[in-house]
Specification:
heterodimer, A: alpha+beta, OB fold (Dihydrolipoamide Acetyltransferase, E2P), six-stranded antiparallel sheet, three-stranded antiparallel sheet, 4 helices, 9 strands, B: alpha+beta, Gyrase A, domain 2, Alpha-Beta Plaits, Elongation Factor Tu (Ef-tu), domain 3, six-stranded mixed sheet, six-stranded antiparallel barrel, 19 strands
Chain lengths: 130, 369
Protein backbone atom coordinates (compact mmCIF):
# COMPACT_ATOMS: atom_id res chain seq x y z
CA UNK A 1 0.00 0.00 0.00
CA UNK A 2 2.61 2.58 1.08
CA UNK A 3 5.54 2.78 -1.39
CA UNK A 4 8.85 1.76 0.15
CA UNK A 5 10.81 4.52 -1.56
CA UNK A 6 8.63 7.32 -0.11
CA UNK A 7 9.03 9.07 3.23
CA UNK A 8 6.05 10.08 5.39
CA UNK A 9 4.99 12.67 7.97
CA UNK A 10 2.68 12.49 10.97
CA UNK A 11 0.41 14.94 9.12
CA UNK A 12 0.03 12.30 6.37
CA UNK A 13 2.08 13.85 3.58
CA UNK A 14 4.54 11.80 1.54
CA UNK A 15 7.70 12.80 -0.32
CA UNK A 16 9.64 10.95 -2.98
CA UNK A 17 13.13 12.31 -3.54
CA UNK A 18 14.66 12.04 -6.98
CA UNK A 19 18.08 13.67 -6.75
CA UNK A 20 17.47 17.24 -5.65
CA UNK A 21 13.79 17.21 -6.66
CA UNK A 22 11.18 16.08 -4.15
CA UNK A 23 7.63 15.15 -5.19
CA UNK A 24 5.03 15.71 -2.46
CA UNK A 25 1.53 14.34 -2.02
CA UNK A 26 -0.91 13.13 0.65
CA UNK A 27 -1.26 9.54 1.76
CA UNK A 28 -4.07 7.09 1.13
CA UNK A 29 -4.92 7.29 4.83
CA UNK A 30 -5.32 11.07 4.49
CA UNK A 31 -7.53 10.91 1.39
CA UNK A 32 -9.76 8.37 3.11
CA UNK A 33 -10.09 10.56 6.20
CA UNK A 34 -10.90 13.60 4.04
CA UNK A 35 -13.56 11.92 1.91
CA UNK A 36 -14.51 13.16 -1.57
CA UNK A 37 -11.99 15.84 -2.58
CA UNK A 38 -13.53 18.74 -4.53
CA UNK A 39 -10.92 21.51 -4.59
CA UNK A 40 -7.16 21.93 -4.29
CA UNK A 41 -5.24 25.17 -3.80
CA UNK A 42 -1.48 24.97 -4.47
CA UNK A 43 1.34 27.52 -4.23
CA UNK A 44 2.79 29.40 -7.20
CA UNK A 45 5.88 27.98 -8.88
CA UNK A 46 8.88 29.79 -7.41
CA UNK A 47 7.45 29.99 -3.88
CA UNK A 48 10.07 29.36 -1.19
CA UNK A 49 8.83 27.04 1.53
CA UNK A 50 10.31 26.01 4.86
CA UNK A 51 9.72 22.52 6.23
CA UNK A 52 6.46 22.49 8.20
CA UNK A 53 4.99 25.48 6.36
CA UNK A 54 1.60 25.29 4.70
CA UNK A 55 1.88 24.51 0.99
CA UNK A 56 -1.82 24.84 0.30
CA UNK A 57 -5.22 23.38 1.08
CA UNK A 58 -7.27 20.40 0.04
CA UNK A 59 -11.03 20.67 0.41
CA UNK A 60 -13.38 17.74 0.63
CA UNK A 61 -17.16 18.07 0.59
CA UNK A 62 -17.09 18.24 4.36
CA UNK A 63 -13.98 20.18 5.34
CA UNK A 64 -10.83 22.16 4.55
CA UNK A 65 -7.41 20.67 5.33
CA UNK A 66 -4.15 22.51 5.28
CA UNK A 67 -1.22 20.60 3.76
CA UNK A 68 2.31 21.09 5.08
CA UNK A 69 5.57 20.65 3.23
CA UNK A 70 7.78 17.98 4.82
CA UNK A 71 10.96 19.65 3.48
CA UNK A 72 12.33 23.09 2.65
CA UNK A 73 12.87 24.33 -0.87
CA UNK A 74 11.52 26.14 -3.92
CA UNK A 75 8.35 24.99 -5.67
CA UNK A 76 9.32 23.99 -9.23
CA UNK A 77 6.04 22.51 -10.44
CA UNK A 78 2.41 22.03 -9.35
CA UNK A 79 0.20 19.24 -10.64
CA UNK A 80 -1.99 20.74 -13.39
CA UNK A 81 -4.26 17.68 -13.49
CA UNK A 82 -5.69 18.55 -10.08
CA UNK A 83 -7.23 21.83 -11.23
CA UNK A 84 -10.05 20.11 -13.12
CA UNK A 85 -9.87 16.68 -11.51
CA UNK A 86 -9.18 17.09 -7.78
CA UNK A 87 -10.97 13.75 -7.20
CA UNK A 88 -7.80 12.03 -8.48
CA UNK A 89 -6.52 12.55 -4.94
CA UNK A 90 -9.07 9.95 -3.82
CA UNK A 91 -8.31 7.46 -6.57
CA UNK A 92 -4.51 7.72 -6.93
CA UNK A 93 -3.02 9.62 -3.98
CA UNK A 94 0.44 8.05 -4.21
CA UNK A 95 0.75 8.39 -7.99
CA UNK A 96 -0.82 10.73 -10.54
CA UNK A 97 -2.34 12.95 -7.82
CA UNK A 98 0.97 14.31 -6.52
CA UNK A 99 0.64 17.95 -5.41
CA UNK A 100 3.93 19.77 -5.97
CA UNK A 101 7.58 19.26 -6.87
CA UNK A 102 10.17 21.06 -4.85
CA UNK A 103 13.89 21.82 -5.27
CA UNK A 104 15.38 20.48 -2.04
CA UNK A 105 17.57 22.80 0.01
CA UNK A 106 18.93 19.96 2.12
CA UNK A 107 19.17 16.57 0.45
CA UNK A 108 19.32 14.85 3.83
CA UNK A 109 15.96 16.25 4.99
CA UNK A 110 13.69 13.44 3.64
CA UNK A 111 15.71 10.72 5.38
CA UNK A 112 14.74 12.17 8.76
CA UNK A 113 11.07 11.38 8.08
CA UNK A 114 9.25 8.07 8.66
CA UNK A 115 9.82 5.23 6.23
CA UNK A 116 6.87 3.14 5.00
CA UNK A 117 7.08 0.61 7.84
CA UNK A 118 7.18 3.32 10.51
CA UNK A 119 4.26 5.16 8.88
CA UNK A 120 2.18 2.00 8.64
CA UNK A 121 2.78 1.35 12.34
CA UNK A 122 1.85 4.97 13.08
CA UNK A 123 -1.52 4.80 11.28
CA UNK A 124 -2.26 1.35 12.71
CA UNK A 125 -1.99 3.04 16.12
CA UNK A 126 -4.41 5.77 14.98
CA UNK A 127 -6.90 3.20 13.71
CA UNK A 128 -6.99 1.63 17.19
CA UNK A 129 -8.22 4.94 18.63
CA UNK A 130 -11.39 4.56 16.59
CA UNK B 1 -11.42 14.16 10.89
CA UNK B 2 -13.51 11.58 12.66
CA UNK B 3 -13.92 11.56 16.40
CA UNK B 4 -13.13 8.32 18.16
CA UNK B 5 -16.11 6.51 19.61
CA UNK B 6 -16.05 6.70 23.37
CA UNK B 7 -18.26 5.30 26.07
CA UNK B 8 -19.82 8.73 26.70
CA UNK B 9 -21.29 8.95 23.21
CA UNK B 10 -24.89 7.92 22.80
CA UNK B 11 -25.59 5.24 20.22
CA UNK B 12 -28.64 4.47 18.13
CA UNK B 13 -29.93 0.89 17.92
CA UNK B 14 -28.21 0.66 14.52
CA UNK B 15 -24.70 1.53 15.70
CA UNK B 16 -23.24 -1.91 15.05
CA UNK B 17 -24.92 -2.05 11.62
CA UNK B 18 -23.20 1.20 10.64
CA UNK B 19 -19.86 -0.10 11.83
CA UNK B 20 -20.35 -3.39 9.95
CA UNK B 21 -21.07 -1.37 6.80
CA UNK B 22 -17.74 0.41 7.29
CA UNK B 23 -19.29 3.83 7.89
CA UNK B 24 -17.01 6.66 8.92
CA UNK B 25 -18.43 7.66 12.31
CA UNK B 26 -18.56 11.12 13.92
CA UNK B 27 -19.62 12.68 17.17
CA UNK B 28 -22.78 14.61 16.30
CA UNK B 29 -24.38 16.40 19.22
CA UNK B 30 -23.11 13.74 21.61
CA UNK B 31 -24.19 10.85 19.38
CA UNK B 32 -21.91 8.39 17.58
CA UNK B 33 -23.38 8.71 14.09
CA UNK B 34 -22.45 7.65 10.54
CA UNK B 35 -20.95 10.53 8.52
CA UNK B 36 -20.70 8.57 5.28
CA UNK B 37 -20.68 5.02 3.92
CA UNK B 38 -19.80 5.03 0.20
CA UNK B 39 -18.99 8.76 0.11
CA UNK B 40 -20.97 11.97 0.43
CA UNK B 41 -21.09 12.63 -3.33
CA UNK B 42 -22.40 9.15 -4.17
CA UNK B 43 -24.95 9.26 -1.35
CA UNK B 44 -26.13 12.76 -2.27
CA UNK B 45 -26.52 11.67 -5.89
CA UNK B 46 -28.45 8.56 -4.88
CA UNK B 47 -31.05 10.64 -3.01
CA UNK B 48 -31.45 13.14 -5.88
CA UNK B 49 -31.78 10.47 -8.59
CA UNK B 50 -32.90 7.26 -6.82
CA UNK B 51 -33.20 6.89 -3.03
CA UNK B 52 -31.26 6.96 0.22
CA UNK B 53 -31.82 5.48 3.68
CA UNK B 54 -30.77 7.44 6.78
CA UNK B 55 -30.67 6.38 10.41
CA UNK B 56 -31.96 9.47 12.19
CA UNK B 57 -32.77 7.76 15.46
CA UNK B 58 -30.70 10.37 17.29
CA UNK B 59 -33.53 12.85 16.68
CA UNK B 60 -35.51 13.51 19.86
CA UNK B 61 -39.20 12.94 20.45
CA UNK B 62 -41.31 14.80 22.98
CA UNK B 63 -44.98 13.95 23.46
CA UNK B 64 -47.64 16.22 24.85
CA UNK B 65 -50.90 14.72 26.00
CA UNK B 66 -53.99 15.98 27.75
CA UNK B 67 -57.09 18.12 27.44
CA UNK B 68 -54.92 21.23 27.01
CA UNK B 69 -52.15 19.64 24.93
CA UNK B 70 -52.89 22.05 22.08
CA UNK B 71 -52.69 25.08 24.41
CA UNK B 72 -49.19 24.09 25.49
CA UNK B 73 -48.03 23.47 21.90
CA UNK B 74 -49.46 26.86 20.92
CA UNK B 75 -47.74 28.57 23.85
CA UNK B 76 -44.20 27.32 23.13
CA UNK B 77 -44.16 27.17 19.30
CA UNK B 78 -44.63 29.87 16.68
CA UNK B 79 -46.62 28.05 13.97
CA UNK B 80 -50.38 27.67 14.39
CA UNK B 81 -50.98 24.11 15.57
CA UNK B 82 -54.73 24.79 15.79
CA UNK B 83 -54.78 24.46 12.01
CA UNK B 84 -53.41 20.93 12.06
CA UNK B 85 -55.81 18.09 11.27
CA UNK B 86 -55.35 14.71 12.95
CA UNK B 87 -52.68 12.97 10.85
CA UNK B 88 -51.04 16.22 9.78
CA UNK B 89 -47.62 17.63 10.67
CA UNK B 90 -45.93 20.99 10.29
CA UNK B 91 -42.55 22.64 10.69
CA UNK B 92 -42.31 25.09 13.58
CA UNK B 93 -40.01 26.84 16.02
CA UNK B 94 -39.74 26.40 19.76
CA UNK B 95 -39.44 29.99 20.96
CA UNK B 96 -37.74 31.88 23.75
CA UNK B 97 -39.43 34.92 25.25
CA UNK B 98 -37.26 37.00 22.89
CA UNK B 99 -38.77 35.27 19.85
CA UNK B 100 -35.56 33.38 19.12
CA UNK B 101 -35.10 29.66 18.58
CA UNK B 102 -34.73 27.18 21.43
CA UNK B 103 -35.00 24.66 18.58
CA UNK B 104 -36.78 23.95 15.31
CA UNK B 105 -39.11 20.99 15.18
CA UNK B 106 -41.87 19.03 13.49
CA UNK B 107 -45.23 18.94 15.26
CA UNK B 108 -47.43 15.91 14.51
CA UNK B 109 -51.07 15.93 15.58
CA UNK B 110 -51.90 12.36 16.57
CA UNK B 111 -55.24 13.29 18.16
CA UNK B 112 -56.93 16.34 19.73
CA UNK B 113 -55.21 15.44 22.99
CA UNK B 114 -51.89 14.06 21.73
CA UNK B 115 -49.03 15.76 19.87
CA UNK B 116 -45.67 14.26 18.91
CA UNK B 117 -42.79 16.72 18.51
CA UNK B 118 -39.66 15.68 16.63
CA UNK B 119 -36.71 17.79 17.80
CA UNK B 120 -32.95 18.01 17.26
CA UNK B 121 -30.77 15.39 18.96
CA UNK B 122 -28.51 17.84 20.75
CA UNK B 123 -31.42 19.94 22.01
CA UNK B 124 -33.85 17.32 23.24
CA UNK B 125 -33.09 17.58 26.95
CA UNK B 126 -33.14 21.39 26.87
CA UNK B 127 -36.34 21.42 24.80
CA UNK B 128 -38.03 19.10 27.26
CA UNK B 129 -37.09 21.30 30.24
CA UNK B 130 -38.17 24.41 28.36
CA UNK B 131 -41.59 22.99 27.49
CA UNK B 132 -42.07 21.68 31.03
CA UNK B 133 -41.13 25.04 32.50
CA UNK B 134 -43.85 26.67 30.39
CA UNK B 135 -46.49 24.07 31.14
CA UNK B 136 -49.18 25.96 33.01
CA UNK B 137 -51.84 23.82 31.32
CA UNK B 138 -53.65 20.56 31.87
CA UNK B 139 -51.05 18.71 29.78
CA UNK B 140 -48.45 16.03 30.36
CA UNK B 141 -45.01 16.38 28.74
CA UNK B 142 -42.88 13.30 28.17
CA UNK B 143 -39.38 12.93 26.75
CA UNK B 144 -39.95 9.81 24.66
CA UNK B 145 -36.79 9.82 22.53
CA UNK B 146 -35.56 6.44 23.79
CA UNK B 147 -38.88 4.83 22.78
CA UNK B 148 -38.34 5.49 19.08
CA UNK B 149 -35.97 4.68 16.31
CA UNK B 150 -36.38 6.81 13.22
CA UNK B 151 -35.44 5.99 9.65
CA UNK B 152 -35.71 8.42 6.76
CA UNK B 153 -36.11 7.01 3.26
CA UNK B 154 -35.79 9.84 0.79
CA UNK B 155 -35.71 10.32 -2.97
CA UNK B 156 -37.60 9.81 -6.20
CA UNK B 157 -37.99 6.08 -5.60
CA UNK B 158 -38.52 6.16 -1.81
CA UNK B 159 -42.29 5.67 -2.04
CA UNK B 160 -41.99 2.73 -4.43
CA UNK B 161 -39.43 1.00 -2.18
CA UNK B 162 -41.34 1.57 1.05
CA UNK B 163 -44.61 0.46 -0.60
CA UNK B 164 -43.08 -2.98 -1.18
CA UNK B 165 -43.02 -3.50 2.60
CA UNK B 166 -46.39 -2.10 3.65
CA UNK B 167 -50.09 -2.45 2.93
CA UNK B 168 -50.65 1.14 4.00
CA UNK B 169 -51.47 3.20 0.94
CA UNK B 170 -48.56 5.61 0.72
CA UNK B 171 -50.25 7.52 -2.10
CA UNK B 172 -52.98 8.52 0.32
CA UNK B 173 -50.46 10.08 2.74
CA UNK B 174 -50.08 13.67 1.56
CA UNK B 175 -46.96 15.80 1.97
CA UNK B 176 -46.54 16.66 5.68
CA UNK B 177 -49.17 14.12 6.66
CA UNK B 178 -48.72 10.79 8.42
CA UNK B 179 -50.48 7.52 9.15
CA UNK B 180 -49.95 4.53 11.40
CA UNK B 181 -49.30 1.25 9.65
CA UNK B 182 -47.18 -1.85 9.54
CA UNK B 183 -43.91 -1.91 7.63
CA UNK B 184 -42.51 -5.46 7.41
CA UNK B 185 -44.98 -6.36 10.15
CA UNK B 186 -43.62 -3.64 12.46
CA UNK B 187 -45.98 -0.99 13.82
CA UNK B 188 -44.80 2.43 12.56
CA UNK B 189 -45.77 6.05 12.36
CA UNK B 190 -45.20 6.75 8.66
CA UNK B 191 -44.78 10.46 7.92
CA UNK B 192 -44.32 11.97 4.48
CA UNK B 193 -41.69 14.42 5.66
CA UNK B 194 -37.97 14.88 5.15
CA UNK B 195 -34.90 17.05 5.22
CA UNK B 196 -33.50 16.53 1.74
CA UNK B 197 -35.70 18.47 -0.68
CA UNK B 198 -36.99 15.20 -2.13
CA UNK B 199 -40.19 13.26 -1.67
CA UNK B 200 -39.82 10.67 1.06
CA UNK B 201 -40.86 9.30 4.40
CA UNK B 202 -39.70 9.40 7.99
CA UNK B 203 -40.80 6.37 9.99
CA UNK B 204 -40.90 6.09 13.76
CA UNK B 205 -40.99 2.72 15.53
CA UNK B 206 -39.88 0.68 18.54
CA UNK B 207 -36.03 0.55 18.57
CA UNK B 208 -35.99 -3.22 19.11
CA UNK B 209 -37.00 -3.67 15.45
CA UNK B 210 -34.30 -1.35 14.08
CA UNK B 211 -31.95 -3.92 12.55
CA UNK B 212 -34.82 -5.84 10.95
CA UNK B 213 -36.42 -2.77 9.41
CA UNK B 214 -33.09 -1.33 8.21
CA UNK B 215 -32.21 -4.69 6.62
CA UNK B 216 -35.59 -5.12 4.94
CA UNK B 217 -35.56 -1.59 3.53
CA UNK B 218 -32.02 -1.96 2.19
CA UNK B 219 -33.00 -5.27 0.58
CA UNK B 220 -36.26 -3.89 -0.86
CA UNK B 221 -34.38 -0.94 -2.32
CA UNK B 222 -31.44 -2.82 -3.75
CA UNK B 223 -32.78 -3.07 -7.31
CA UNK B 224 -33.81 0.60 -7.23
CA UNK B 225 -30.29 1.71 -6.27
CA UNK B 226 -31.06 2.65 -2.66
CA UNK B 227 -27.90 3.66 -0.76
CA UNK B 228 -27.24 3.91 2.96
CA UNK B 229 -26.65 7.62 3.62
CA UNK B 230 -24.91 9.41 6.47
CA UNK B 231 -25.10 12.81 8.08
CA UNK B 232 -22.64 14.23 5.52
CA UNK B 233 -25.12 13.80 2.66
CA UNK B 234 -28.00 14.80 4.94
CA UNK B 235 -26.24 18.14 5.40
CA UNK B 236 -25.40 18.78 1.72
CA UNK B 237 -28.95 17.77 0.72
CA UNK B 238 -30.65 20.08 3.22
CA UNK B 239 -28.29 22.91 2.29
CA UNK B 240 -29.06 22.52 -1.43
CA UNK B 241 -32.76 22.54 -0.49
CA UNK B 242 -32.18 25.82 1.43
CA UNK B 243 -33.31 24.34 4.76
CA UNK B 244 -32.12 25.69 8.10
CA UNK B 245 -29.94 23.73 10.51
CA UNK B 246 -30.06 24.52 14.21
CA UNK B 247 -26.76 25.96 15.41
CA UNK B 248 -26.07 27.34 11.93
CA UNK B 249 -28.92 29.37 10.38
CA UNK B 250 -30.96 29.47 13.57
CA UNK B 251 -30.19 29.53 17.28
CA UNK B 252 -31.04 31.44 20.47
CA UNK B 253 -29.91 34.70 18.84
CA UNK B 254 -31.98 34.50 15.64
CA UNK B 255 -35.69 34.94 15.04
CA UNK B 256 -37.90 33.26 12.43
CA UNK B 257 -38.36 36.63 10.70
CA UNK B 258 -34.60 37.07 10.25
CA UNK B 259 -34.20 33.47 9.06
CA UNK B 260 -36.76 33.84 6.26
CA UNK B 261 -39.16 31.66 8.24
CA UNK B 262 -41.97 34.19 8.50
CA UNK B 263 -44.24 31.46 7.08
CA UNK B 264 -43.97 29.44 10.32
CA UNK B 265 -44.45 32.52 12.49
CA UNK B 266 -48.22 32.94 12.88
CA UNK B 267 -48.53 36.17 14.85
CA UNK B 268 -52.29 36.23 14.23
CA UNK B 269 -52.88 33.07 16.28
CA UNK B 270 -52.85 35.02 19.55
CA UNK B 271 -50.18 35.50 22.23
CA UNK B 272 -47.45 32.88 22.63
CA UNK B 273 -43.93 32.76 24.05
CA UNK B 274 -41.94 35.34 22.08
CA UNK B 275 -44.92 36.84 20.24
CA UNK B 276 -44.49 40.28 21.85
CA UNK B 277 -40.88 40.46 20.67
CA UNK B 278 -41.78 39.12 17.24
CA UNK B 279 -44.66 41.58 16.80
CA UNK B 280 -42.27 44.37 17.73
CA UNK B 281 -39.67 43.12 15.25
CA UNK B 282 -42.31 42.88 12.55
CA UNK B 283 -43.39 46.47 13.25
CA UNK B 284 -39.88 47.95 13.34
CA UNK B 285 -38.37 45.73 10.66
CA UNK B 286 -35.42 43.37 10.83
CA UNK B 287 -31.79 44.48 10.83
CA UNK B 288 -30.45 41.40 9.11
CA UNK B 289 -31.78 38.60 6.98
CA UNK B 290 -30.71 35.18 5.80
CA UNK B 291 -29.77 34.92 2.13
CA UNK B 292 -28.49 32.22 -0.18
CA UNK B 293 -25.42 32.81 -2.33
CA UNK B 294 -23.35 31.01 -4.91
CA UNK B 295 -19.62 31.37 -5.44
CA UNK B 296 -18.50 32.87 -8.74
CA UNK B 297 -15.21 30.98 -8.89
CA UNK B 298 -14.10 27.55 -7.69
CA UNK B 299 -13.45 28.57 -4.11
CA UNK B 300 -15.64 27.23 -1.31
CA UNK B 301 -17.28 29.26 1.46
CA UNK B 302 -17.51 27.50 4.80
CA UNK B 303 -19.44 28.00 8.02
CA UNK B 304 -18.17 31.02 9.95
CA UNK B 305 -16.40 32.82 7.08
CA UNK B 306 -16.95 36.57 6.93
CA UNK B 307 -19.19 38.14 4.28
CA UNK B 308 -17.77 41.35 2.79
CA UNK B 309 -19.85 44.07 1.20
CA UNK B 310 -17.87 46.94 -0.32
CA UNK B 311 -14.83 45.47 1.42
CA UNK B 312 -16.38 45.69 4.90
CA UNK B 313 -17.31 42.86 7.23
CA UNK B 314 -21.09 42.60 6.82
CA UNK B 315 -22.05 39.22 8.22
CA UNK B 316 -21.20 35.56 8.59
CA UNK B 317 -21.66 32.43 6.51
CA UNK B 318 -23.98 30.10 8.45
CA UNK B 319 -23.53 27.07 6.18
CA UNK B 320 -21.34 26.76 3.13
CA UNK B 321 -19.91 24.10 0.89
CA UNK B 322 -20.30 22.27 -2.39
CA UNK B 323 -23.78 21.63 -3.79
CA UNK B 324 -23.03 18.24 -5.35
CA UNK B 325 -26.15 17.97 -7.52
CA UNK B 326 -26.06 21.58 -8.75
CA UNK B 327 -22.28 21.38 -9.23
CA UNK B 328 -21.77 24.80 -7.66
CA UNK B 329 -20.41 26.02 -4.38
CA UNK B 330 -23.16 27.58 -2.31
CA UNK B 331 -23.89 28.93 1.11
CA UNK B 332 -26.25 30.83 3.35
CA UNK B 333 -25.37 33.92 5.35
CA UNK B 334 -26.84 36.72 7.40
CA UNK B 335 -26.44 40.11 5.74
CA UNK B 336 -27.79 43.57 6.62
CA UNK B 337 -31.45 43.75 5.58
CA UNK B 338 -30.57 46.73 3.36
CA UNK B 339 -28.54 44.39 1.11
CA UNK B 340 -29.98 43.92 -2.37
CA UNK B 341 -31.87 40.83 -3.51
CA UNK B 342 -30.96 38.04 -5.94
CA UNK B 343 -28.22 39.12 -8.33
CA UNK B 344 -26.44 41.36 -5.84
CA UNK B 345 -22.75 40.59 -5.59
CA UNK B 346 -20.78 40.28 -2.37
CA UNK B 347 -17.52 38.68 -1.33
CA UNK B 348 -16.60 35.91 1.05
CA UNK B 349 -13.35 36.19 2.99
CA UNK B 350 -11.51 32.90 2.43
CA UNK B 351 -8.15 32.59 4.20
CA UNK B 352 -7.56 36.30 3.88
CA UNK B 353 -8.67 36.61 0.26
CA UNK B 354 -11.94 38.04 -0.99
CA UNK B 355 -13.77 35.55 -3.22
CA UNK B 356 -16.69 36.83 -5.33
CA UNK B 357 -20.20 35.50 -4.76
CA UNK B 358 -23.73 36.40 -5.84
CA UNK B 359 -26.96 36.36 -3.87
CA UNK B 360 -29.45 33.87 -5.31
CA UNK B 361 -33.03 33.01 -4.41
CA UNK B 362 -33.65 30.19 -1.94
CA UNK B 363 -34.03 27.27 -2.26
CA UNK B 364 -31.02 26.53 -4.45
CA UNK B 365 -32.63 23.26 -5.49
CA UNK B 366 -36.30 22.50 -5.99
CA UNK B 367 -37.36 19.04 -7.11
CA UNK B 368 -38.78 19.02 -10.62
CA UNK B 369 -41.47 16.41 -9.96
Amino acid sequence: MYPKDYRYTKEHEWIRADGAIGTIGITDYAQHELGDVVFVELPRVGTQLKAGQSLGTIESVKAVSEIFTPVSGEVTETNPALVDAPEKINSDPHGSAWLIKIQLVDLKEPAALMDAAAYEAYIAGKAKEH
Amino acid sequence: MTTPATAELRKTALNSVHRRLGAKMVNFGGWDMPLEYSGILAEHGAVRTRAGLFDVSHMGEIEIRGAQALDLVQQVSCNNAAKLAVGQAHYSGLMTERGTFVDDLLVHKISDTHYLLCVNAGNQDGDFEHIRANNKFDAKVENTGPRYSQLAIQGLRAKEILQRLTRASLDSIGYYHFAFGEVSGIHCLIARTGYTGEDGFEIYFDPQHSEKLWGELMEAGKSAGLLACGLGARNTLRMEAGMCLYGHEIDETTTPLEAGLGWICKLDKGPFLGSTALNEQKRCGIDRRLVGFEMLDKRIARDGYAVLIDGRDAGRVTSGGPAPFLKKNIGMAYVPSTTGSAGTTLEISIRGQAAPARIVALPFYKRPH
